[in-house]
Structures are given as structure tokens and as C-alpha cells.
Amino acid sequence: MRALIQRVTGASVTIDGEVTGKTGAGLLVFVCAMPNDTKATAQDLAAKITKLRLFKDNDGKMNLSLAQTGGSALIVSQFTLAADTSRGTRPGFSGAGQPDLAKSLYLHFIASMKQLDIPTQTGEFGADMSVCSTNQGPCTIWIDTERP
Hints:
Layout: E1 2-15, E2 18-23, E3 26-32, H1 39-51, E4 53-56, E5 62-65, H2 66-69, E6 72-77, H3 99-115, E7 120-122, E8 130-144
Parallel strand pairs: 3-6, 6-7
Antiparallel strand pairs: 1-2, 1-3, 1-8, 4-5
Family: Belongs to the DTD family.
GO molecular function: D-tyrosyl-tRNA(Tyr) deacylase activity
Pfam families: Tyr_Deacylase
């Protein structure tokens, strides 16, 4: 799986003019399932994200995790994280997981975050969404579970 994580002071997802998910201080997490991903991949990614030390401690150092701060997460599916831009000027997305697999793993990732006691809201898989966020730092992290 691939994830793009942003430390935010707030973020929201709007679909057809209605806010369907939002978070205050915490993480905005864009996720993309890849063809070889499994439920174990989704669980491992959720565990890693909740433990990443991305939040400042009392000394101003990034030393606290989402779980330690009591922050929340807004999770948005984003197949474009699988974009292949190696040829031409139009990205290809054939490297993304097929929709049925991707939706299943997206939902499993969300469930895994909730099982780790992270307050979680979401976008809607496959929907045309508007995402609004205030990135804090800025702090943006890319994770690809297939890379060492």
C-alpha cells in the first residue's frame, strides 16, 4: 500500500456540497492499495502510521505519535498515488489495485486504525471529493510498503 500522510491542524472531505468527514489536530491520510497488498499489509500500515513520531513534544522535537497525542485521522482513498509518470505527460494508473481489492483494503485499513483506538473519519471510496486541509509544519510523509 501507499500512503501520503500530512500532519494537520484540521482537514475535511466534502462530497456533493456535504462534509462527510473531518478531523481536528491529527493526520490526513491518503491511501492507495496496490495489486499485491493484503489485509495484513493494511493492518501493518495502520500500525506504523499510528506509531510514527510526527508530533512535537514539550521541547519542540517531533517525538510523539498520533496515538500519544490523542489526535484523530481523516482517511481518504486516492488511487492516483499509484501514478506512473515515466512516459509522456499523462499519468498511468494501471499499477493501482483493482477496485474491488482496493475498496476492501481501504475499509480494512480504516477498521485497523479504529482498532488501534484512533478516532477516524473518512472520505468515500470512488467518490469525487473535495479535500481541504491545513498542513502543520508543513509535515508530509510518503510511505510505500513495497519499498525497504
